[in-house]
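User: Some background: our group keeps a shared notebook of sequences we're curious about, and every so often someone picks one and asks for a predicted structure to add to the entry. Today it's my turn. The entry only has the sequence so far, pasted here. Could you supply the structure so I can complete it?
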Amino acid sequence: MHPPHGGFTIFYDDKTGEDLSHIFEDVELYELRKGNSISVRRRGQNRRYYRIVRVEPGFHTRVFVRRVLLHPRDIIQLAIIAGLCWFLFDMLVPFFLD
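Assistant: Of course. Here's the predicted structure to add to the notebook entry:
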């Protein structure tokens, strides 16, 4: 990713210091400005969410990110699935008890 001033943006893991730039090759600048989190999906993998911890501006901008294990959307999806399973269980149990 190339910032408008001509340098490069390098992504690092906040905990390990590992270079994660290969993961964020297709991230656009507007996604960085949109909020405090970035979502990345690579072919054949699930979507991963990263939270921006800090940004060190300069010719080579350094962005430190931390992996978010459970995103609020994931929690909502799990709640919907649990509700549907509970509903089906309540519908099927009386049928088999008769």
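Suggested note for the entry: The longest helix spans residues 72-97. Residues 8-69 form one domain.
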